[in-house]
């Protein structure tokens, strides 16, 4: 309990309630889901070959296993030739490791940076706000990760579409010599499950939305945003105060000049004269 109290006294966990810290927590979680659902995937498909002439050569359950990073050209399997119990060794088509590894790499680095940013926000918030380079670096990294999430998610979505085609049981059957013979029967037992990889693509684009949306909240911490009102809203406060003082001294000087306007003197001068055309005395009027 003492260690927890010490952490609470040192760190400012209130920042996690603000959009800046709360979105970083979401980025950290979503990055975990992104690389876990992609990097931990393994799938399997099964096809069958039924040889009509040589039943002993038939294989009704040919299992083909593949996994991350999806170098399908290295995945091999054996299929019967339906000729005197002979078999052929075949390989799947395609290499999609570059897109998959790029996506996972971005997710891992985003996870590490979001974790580091949360630690800085909590335990080094004063230094983060005092040093202008801190918010500036945070802003630049956030923009870069937003762009990289968009690129990697798009590339991975395209690669996943190609992987689905390459591992389609109907496409795999066309690689087998026995399936090209009309007398033999080839079929699909079951195909791979794509729910995990589809989820990884969804989390990839969600991460892009989170990082892109967080650009504004990080930008508000930079000197660019804090200096905006001074540049676009008029002169700085000190300059405005000096201008106001000059105007005030000018007004006082104009009142104190000999030829200046005096309300009291004008009123006294007006009282010495009677209205034009009016009676001067009561006796004259009689």
TrEMBL record:
- One Pfam family matching this protein: MARVEL
Q: Which PROSITE patterns match?
A: MARVEL
**Domain named MARVEL: which ranges?**
15-223
Query: Membrane topology for this entry?
Result: Multi-pass membrane protein
Annotated coiled-coil positions are: none
Keywords, comma-separated and alphabetical: Glycoprotein, Membrane, Transmembrane, Transmembrane helix
Q: Where are the transmembrane segments?
A: 21-42, 102-124, 136-157, 201-219
Spell out the residue ranges making up region: Disordered: 251-286
Compartment(s): Membrane
Q: Which GO terms describe its cellular component?
A: membrane
The text of the family note is: Belongs to the synaptophysin/synaptobrevin family.
Q: Which PANTHER family match?
A: SYNAPTOPHYSIN, SYNAPTOPORIN
Q: What's the protein name? A: MARVEL domain-containing protein
């Amino acid at each position: 309990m003492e260690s927890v109290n010490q952490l609470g006294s040192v760190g400012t966990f209130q920042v996690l309630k603000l959009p800046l810290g709360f979105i970083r927590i979401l980025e950290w979680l979503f990055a975990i889901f992104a690389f876990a659902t992609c990097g931990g995937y393994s799938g399997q498909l099964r096809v069958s070959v039924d040889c009509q002439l040589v039943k002993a050569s038939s294989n009704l359950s040919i299992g083909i296993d593949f996994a991350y990073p999806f170098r399908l050209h290295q995945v091999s399997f054996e299929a019967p030739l339906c000729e005197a119990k002979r078999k052929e060794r075949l390989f799947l088509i395609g290499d999609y490791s570059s897109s998959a590894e790029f996506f996972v790499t971005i997710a891992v680095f985003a996870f590490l940076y979001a974790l580091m940013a949360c630690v800085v926000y909590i335990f080094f918030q004063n230094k983060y706000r005092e040093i202008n380079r801190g918010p500036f670096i945070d802003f630049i990294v956030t923009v870069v990760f937003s762009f990289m999430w968009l690129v990697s998610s798009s590339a991975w979505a395209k690669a996943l579409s190609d992987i689905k085609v390459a591992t389609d049981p109907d496409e795999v059957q066309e690689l087998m010599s026995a399936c090209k013979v009309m007398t033999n029967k080839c079929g699909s037992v079951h195909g791979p499950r794509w729910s995990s990889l589809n989820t990884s693509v969804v989390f990839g684009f969600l991460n892009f939305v989170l990082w892109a949306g967080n650009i504004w909240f990080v930008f508000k911490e930079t000197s660019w945003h804090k200096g905006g009102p001074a540049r676009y809203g008029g002169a700085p406060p000190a300059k405005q105060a000096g201008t106001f003082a000059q105007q005030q001294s000018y007004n006082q000087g104009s009142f104190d000049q000999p030829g200046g306007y005096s309300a009291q003197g004008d009123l006294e001068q007006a009282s010495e004269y009677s209205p034009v055309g009016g009676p001067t005395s009561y006796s004259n009027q009689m």
